[in-house]
Amino acid sequence: MRKTDIKAVDPLLSLVLLTRLPLPPLSKESFSRQARAVWAFPVAGLVVGTLASLCGLLALCWWPPLVAAGLALAVQVLVTGALHEDGLADTADGFWGGFERARRLEIMKDSHIGSYGVLALILGIGLRWAVLTALFDAGLIWAPVALGVLSRAAMPVLMASLPNARGSGLSQSVGRPPRGAVLTGLALALVLAVLAIGWSALPAALLCVPAVLGLRALAKVKIGGQTGDVLGACQQVTELGVALALLALL
Asked: Which domain holds residue 193?
Protein backbone atom coordinates (compact mmCIF):
# COMPACT_ATOMS: atom_id res chain seq x y z
CA MET A 1 0.00 0.00 0.00
CA ARG A 2 1.58 3.29 -1.11
CA LYS A 3 1.98 6.14 1.35
CA THR A 4 -0.32 8.25 -0.83
CA ASP A 5 -3.11 5.74 -0.15
CA ILE A 6 -3.12 6.66 3.55
CA LYS A 7 -4.66 9.96 4.56
CA ALA A 8 -5.16 11.58 7.96
CA VAL A 9 -8.89 11.76 7.27
CA ASP A 10 -9.21 7.95 6.98
CA PRO A 11 -9.61 7.25 10.73
CA LEU A 12 -12.34 9.91 10.90
CA LEU A 13 -14.07 8.29 7.94
CA SER A 14 -14.00 4.92 9.68
CA LEU A 15 -15.52 6.45 12.81
CA VAL A 16 -18.24 8.15 10.75
CA LEU A 17 -19.12 4.85 9.07
CA LEU A 18 -18.93 2.53 12.06
CA THR A 19 -19.91 4.61 15.10
CA ARG A 20 -22.43 7.19 16.23
CA LEU A 21 -19.89 9.39 17.98
CA PRO A 22 -20.18 13.18 17.54
CA LEU A 23 -17.52 14.05 14.98
CA PRO A 24 -16.55 17.15 13.02
CA PRO A 25 -18.16 17.39 9.57
CA LEU A 26 -16.10 16.06 6.69
CA SER A 27 -15.93 17.44 3.16
CA LYS A 28 -17.74 15.72 0.33
CA GLU A 29 -14.38 14.96 -1.26
CA SER A 30 -13.34 13.01 1.83
CA PHE A 31 -16.11 10.47 1.31
CA SER A 32 -14.70 9.59 -2.11
CA ARG A 33 -11.91 7.82 -0.16
CA GLN A 34 -14.24 5.42 1.66
CA ALA A 35 -13.01 2.30 -0.12
CA ARG A 36 -9.35 3.18 0.43
CA ALA A 37 -9.98 4.17 4.05
CA VAL A 38 -10.99 0.66 5.17
CA TRP A 39 -7.46 0.14 6.48
CA ALA A 40 -8.58 2.40 9.36
CA PHE A 41 -11.58 0.26 10.35
CA PRO A 42 -9.50 -1.14 13.27
CA VAL A 43 -9.19 2.44 14.53
CA ALA A 44 -12.96 2.47 15.03
CA GLY A 45 -12.63 -0.85 16.82
CA LEU A 46 -9.88 0.61 18.99
CA VAL A 47 -12.08 3.52 20.05
CA VAL A 48 -15.14 1.35 20.74
CA GLY A 49 -13.09 -1.31 22.52
CA THR A 50 -11.20 1.21 24.65
CA LEU A 51 -14.41 2.85 25.85
CA ALA A 52 -15.87 -0.57 26.67
CA SER A 53 -12.72 -1.65 28.53
CA LEU A 54 -12.61 1.57 30.55
CA CYS A 55 -16.24 1.09 31.49
CA GLY A 56 -15.52 -2.51 32.52
CA LEU A 57 -12.47 -1.46 34.51
CA LEU A 58 -14.48 1.16 36.39
CA ALA A 59 -17.41 -1.20 36.96
CA LEU A 60 -15.13 -3.85 38.47
CA CYS A 61 -14.39 -1.44 41.32
CA TRP A 62 -17.91 -2.06 42.64
CA TRP A 63 -19.48 -5.02 40.83
CA PRO A 64 -18.60 -8.56 39.75
CA PRO A 65 -17.33 -9.43 36.23
CA LEU A 66 -20.84 -10.40 35.09
CA VAL A 67 -22.12 -6.87 35.66
CA ALA A 68 -18.95 -5.25 34.30
CA ALA A 69 -19.18 -7.29 31.09
CA GLY A 70 -22.84 -6.34 30.64
CA LEU A 71 -22.05 -2.65 31.04
CA ALA A 72 -19.10 -2.95 28.63
CA LEU A 73 -21.41 -4.48 26.03
CA ALA A 74 -23.94 -1.71 26.62
CA VAL A 75 -21.25 0.88 25.91
CA GLN A 76 -20.41 -0.83 22.60
CA VAL A 77 -24.06 -0.85 21.57
CA LEU A 78 -24.49 2.82 22.44
CA VAL A 79 -21.30 3.94 20.68
CA THR A 80 -22.10 2.03 17.48
CA GLY A 81 -25.85 2.58 17.54
CA ALA A 82 -26.29 -1.22 17.42
CA LEU A 83 -25.22 -1.01 13.78
CA HIS A 84 -23.60 -4.43 13.70
CA GLU A 85 -26.24 -6.14 15.84
CA ASP A 86 -28.86 -4.87 13.40
CA GLY A 87 -26.86 -6.37 10.55
CA LEU A 88 -26.68 -9.72 12.32
CA ALA A 89 -30.45 -9.79 12.88
CA ASP A 90 -31.27 -8.78 9.29
CA THR A 91 -28.82 -11.31 7.88
CA ALA A 92 -30.30 -14.14 9.97
CA ASP A 93 -33.83 -13.19 8.92
CA GLY A 94 -32.93 -12.93 5.25
CA PHE A 95 -30.72 -15.99 4.91
CA TRP A 96 -33.20 -18.33 6.58
CA GLY A 97 -36.50 -16.53 6.05
CA GLY A 98 -36.51 -16.60 2.25
CA PHE A 99 -36.25 -19.33 -0.35
CA GLU A 100 -34.78 -17.34 -3.22
CA ARG A 101 -32.19 -14.60 -3.59
CA ALA A 102 -34.56 -11.72 -4.35
CA ARG A 103 -36.83 -12.57 -1.42
CA ARG A 104 -33.87 -12.86 0.96
CA LEU A 105 -32.62 -9.41 -0.04
CA GLU A 106 -36.12 -8.02 0.37
CA ILE A 107 -36.38 -9.44 3.90
CA MET A 108 -32.96 -8.05 4.81
CA LYS A 109 -34.05 -4.57 3.72
CA ASP A 110 -37.24 -4.72 5.78
CA SER A 111 -36.95 -2.78 9.05
CA HIS A 112 -39.04 -5.37 10.90
CA ILE A 113 -37.31 -8.19 12.76
CA GLY A 114 -38.38 -11.81 12.56
CA SER A 115 -37.87 -14.95 14.62
CA TYR A 116 -34.47 -15.75 13.16
CA GLY A 117 -33.24 -12.24 13.85
CA VAL A 118 -34.49 -12.31 17.44
CA LEU A 119 -32.83 -15.65 18.07
CA ALA A 120 -29.58 -14.45 16.49
CA LEU A 121 -29.53 -11.41 18.77
CA ILE A 122 -30.33 -13.40 21.89
CA LEU A 123 -27.66 -15.98 21.17
CA GLY A 124 -25.13 -13.41 19.99
CA ILE A 125 -25.50 -11.04 22.94
CA GLY A 126 -25.80 -13.92 25.40
CA LEU A 127 -22.64 -15.65 24.23
CA ARG A 128 -20.66 -12.40 24.01
CA TRP A 129 -21.76 -11.49 27.53
CA ALA A 130 -20.83 -14.90 28.92
CA VAL A 131 -17.42 -15.02 27.23
CA LEU A 132 -16.57 -11.41 28.12
CA THR A 133 -17.48 -12.16 31.74
CA ALA A 134 -15.00 -15.04 31.72
CA LEU A 135 -12.30 -12.90 30.08
CA PHE A 136 -12.78 -10.12 32.65
CA ASP A 137 -12.66 -12.70 35.40
CA ALA A 138 -9.35 -13.95 33.98
CA GLY A 139 -7.93 -10.42 34.13
CA LEU A 140 -8.14 -9.57 30.41
CA ILE A 141 -9.72 -6.16 30.94
CA TRP A 142 -8.52 -4.93 27.55
CA ALA A 143 -10.02 -7.87 25.67
CA PRO A 144 -12.72 -5.63 24.08
CA VAL A 145 -9.92 -3.70 22.36
CA ALA A 146 -8.51 -6.84 20.74
CA LEU A 147 -11.99 -8.07 19.83
CA GLY A 148 -12.93 -4.68 18.42
CA VAL A 149 -9.92 -4.20 16.15
CA LEU A 150 -9.77 -7.78 14.83
CA SER A 151 -13.49 -8.04 14.10
CA ARG A 152 -13.54 -4.76 12.18
CA ALA A 153 -10.47 -5.71 10.17
CA ALA A 154 -12.40 -8.76 8.94
CA MET A 155 -15.16 -6.69 7.35
CA PRO A 156 -13.04 -5.35 4.44
CA VAL A 157 -12.05 -8.94 3.64
CA LEU A 158 -15.66 -9.65 2.66
CA MET A 159 -15.95 -6.28 0.90
CA ALA A 160 -12.95 -7.08 -1.28
CA SER A 161 -13.68 -10.75 -1.94
CA LEU A 162 -17.44 -10.60 -2.65
CA PRO A 163 -19.42 -8.34 -4.99
CA ASN A 164 -22.22 -6.18 -3.63
CA ALA A 165 -25.36 -8.29 -3.80
CA ARG A 166 -27.89 -5.47 -4.00
CA GLY A 167 -26.29 -2.72 -6.07
CA SER A 168 -27.31 -0.10 -3.50
CA GLY A 169 -26.98 0.71 0.18
CA LEU A 170 -24.04 1.54 2.45
CA SER A 171 -21.78 -1.24 1.23
CA GLN A 172 -22.32 -0.22 -2.40
CA SER A 173 -21.65 3.45 -1.64
CA VAL A 174 -18.35 2.61 0.04
CA GLY A 175 -17.18 0.52 -2.90
CA ARG A 176 -14.75 -2.36 -3.28
CA PRO A 177 -11.54 -1.70 -1.34
CA PRO A 178 -8.09 -2.32 -2.83
CA ARG A 179 -6.13 -5.29 -1.56
CA GLY A 180 -3.46 -3.08 -0.04
CA ALA A 181 -5.99 -1.33 2.18
CA VAL A 182 -7.39 -4.67 3.37
CA LEU A 183 -3.95 -6.07 4.19
CA THR A 184 -2.89 -2.88 5.95
CA GLY A 185 -6.02 -3.04 8.10
CA LEU A 186 -5.34 -6.65 9.03
CA ALA A 187 -1.73 -5.88 9.97
CA LEU A 188 -2.79 -2.87 12.03
CA ALA A 189 -5.43 -4.92 13.83
CA LEU A 190 -2.95 -7.65 14.73
CA VAL A 191 -0.47 -5.11 16.14
CA LEU A 192 -3.13 -3.36 18.20
CA ALA A 193 -4.53 -6.68 19.46
CA VAL A 194 -1.10 -7.87 20.58
CA LEU A 195 -0.50 -4.58 22.37
CA ALA A 196 -3.86 -4.93 24.12
CA ILE A 197 -3.71 -8.53 25.36
CA GLY A 198 -0.36 -10.00 24.38
CA TRP A 199 0.72 -12.68 21.92
CA SER A 200 -2.34 -14.83 22.57
CA ALA A 201 -4.14 -12.48 20.17
CA LEU A 202 -2.34 -14.05 17.19
CA PRO A 203 -3.55 -17.67 17.54
CA ALA A 204 -6.99 -16.39 18.57
CA ALA A 205 -7.18 -14.37 15.34
CA LEU A 206 -6.12 -17.37 13.26
CA LEU A 207 -8.69 -19.63 14.90
CA CYS A 208 -11.54 -17.34 13.84
CA VAL A 209 -10.58 -17.46 10.15
CA PRO A 210 -12.95 -20.42 9.51
CA ALA A 211 -15.84 -18.30 10.84
CA VAL A 212 -15.12 -15.54 8.33
CA LEU A 213 -14.69 -18.00 5.47
CA GLY A 214 -17.87 -19.80 6.49
CA LEU A 215 -19.90 -16.58 6.48
CA ARG A 216 -18.39 -15.63 3.13
CA ALA A 217 -19.39 -18.97 1.60
CA LEU A 218 -22.89 -18.72 3.09
CA ALA A 219 -23.40 -15.18 1.78
CA LYS A 220 -22.26 -16.22 -1.69
CA VAL A 221 -24.73 -19.11 -1.75
CA LYS A 222 -27.67 -17.26 -0.20
CA ILE A 223 -27.54 -13.85 -1.92
CA GLY A 224 -24.57 -13.99 -4.31
CA GLY A 225 -22.45 -11.45 -2.46
CA GLN A 226 -22.33 -9.10 0.49
CA THR A 227 -24.37 -6.18 1.81
CA GLY A 228 -24.00 -3.79 4.72
CA ASP A 229 -26.02 -6.22 6.83
CA VAL A 230 -23.67 -9.08 5.99
CA LEU A 231 -20.70 -6.91 6.96
CA GLY A 232 -22.37 -6.17 10.29
CA ALA A 233 -22.94 -9.87 10.81
CA CYS A 234 -19.28 -10.47 9.95
CA GLN A 235 -18.21 -8.12 12.73
CA GLN A 236 -20.44 -9.87 15.24
CA VAL A 237 -19.48 -13.40 14.22
CA THR A 238 -15.77 -12.56 14.15
CA GLU A 239 -15.86 -10.82 17.52
CA LEU A 240 -17.51 -13.85 19.08
CA GLY A 241 -15.15 -16.22 17.27
CA VAL A 242 -12.05 -14.40 18.51
CA ALA A 243 -13.47 -14.24 22.04
CA LEU A 244 -14.26 -17.96 22.11
CA ALA A 245 -10.83 -18.81 20.70
CA LEU A 246 -9.13 -16.57 23.24
CA LEU A 247 -11.07 -18.13 26.09
CA ALA A 248 -10.19 -21.61 24.86
CA LEU A 249 -6.51 -20.67 24.71
CA LEU A 250 -6.63 -19.43 28.30
From this structure: 8-22+38-249
